[in-house]
Amino acid sequence: MESTLELTLQSYNMAHPKRGIAVIINNNGDREGSEKDVEALQAVLKHLQFDVRLLSDKTTVEIRHALKEVSQEDHSNNDCLAIIAIAHGYNDRIDFDDGYLHIDELWTNFVGNKCPSLIGKPKLVFIQACRGGKHDYGASTATADARPGLEEPVDVKIPMYADLLVMYSCYEHHVSMRFPNGSWFIQSLCQVLGANIAKTELLALLTHVSYLVSIRSGQTKQSKVVKQIPMVTSMLTKAFSFVPKSSAD
Predict the structure, then answer these.
(1) Is residue 88 annotated as a catalytic residue, yes or no?
(2) Tens-place pLDDT, residues 127-167
(3) Which of 83-97, 129-143, 188-202, 206-220 is predicted with the least confidence, judged by mean pLDDT?
(4) Looking at residue 152, what DSSP letter applies?
(5) How far is Cα 243 from Cα 76, in angstroms, rounded to an integer?
(6) Residue percentage of the chain with pLDDT more than 90
(7) Could you tell me if 124 and 106 are in contact, meaning their C-beta atoms sit under 8 angstroms apart?
């Protein structure tokens, strides 16, 4: 029986004067290939008209202070916020030379009433870091897929973590693959975000990022083939797409 129910999806207001701030947190250290990831991220985020802020090889104290300062800025004219962290990690933390940050420290200053000018706006967090020591050795399949190259005023209470999206480069407790030409996750993310995506909803884009990562293969030191799959946790409440601005800011 055909349903007569009409479903109306809401969309985030992407008509603000500015796209928003994108903070890249990079702990280079001994992470060969991370400079390639930073270069790709800077290029694609500027293409999407973000105000890109790079925090490279900073201490945990400096990173906490920088994130706090960004949360105290006025985001009233911005569509959204993006935070990208590139570092070593394990489970719910990302590691730096002087210590570590709990993953939720990346967004804790921006949720709820802590950053009033971002209430009701998307907060997008992307994390390129290992989440453990397990390797994904994949599963055999009999067939192979083809592999192609007006915002409402805030006058009611909303859930504290609404409008937050976090995408991890790998499944929990697993290794995130990185090579001299960059990490699988960041390079796939930049490939997708750098395409003609103006009319494509964000979660569809991120699904394709996961696909691109999933079809990559690498090898361990024991010559075992390894695979990887990103993981998305979305608390977005509306459709989101990168509607082009009339001119770059």
Answers:
(1) yes
(2) 998 877 676 666 665 444 444 444 444 445 668 889 999 99
(3) 129-143
(4) P
(5) 18
(6) 63
(7) no
Is 0.85 topped by the overall pTM? yes
Q: How far apart are CA 209 and CA 59, in angstroms?
A: 30
Per the prediction, the chain carries an average pLDDT of 87
Which residues lie across from 93 on neighbouring strands?
90, 102
In what order do the strands lie in the sheet containing 99-102?
88-90, 93-96, 99-102
DSSP letters, 25-78, are EE--TT-TTHHHHHHHHHHHHHHTT-EEEEEES--HHHHHHHHHHHHTS--TTE
pLDDT of 225 above 50: yes
Please give the DSSP secondary-structure letter assigned to residue 239.
B
Q: Which of 75, 80, 88, 190 is catalytic?
A: 88
Helices (H), the chain: 34-47, 60-71, 184-193, 202-214
Would you call 130 a catalytic residue per the annotation? yes
Token code pair at residue 178: 């990185």
CB 117: neighbour CB atoms within 10 A? Answer: 16
Alpha carbon 53 to chain centroid, angstroms: 15
Partners of 21 in beta bridges:
51, 81
Q: What residues form DSSP beta bridges with 139?
A: none
| Catalytic one of 75, 80, 115, 130 | 130
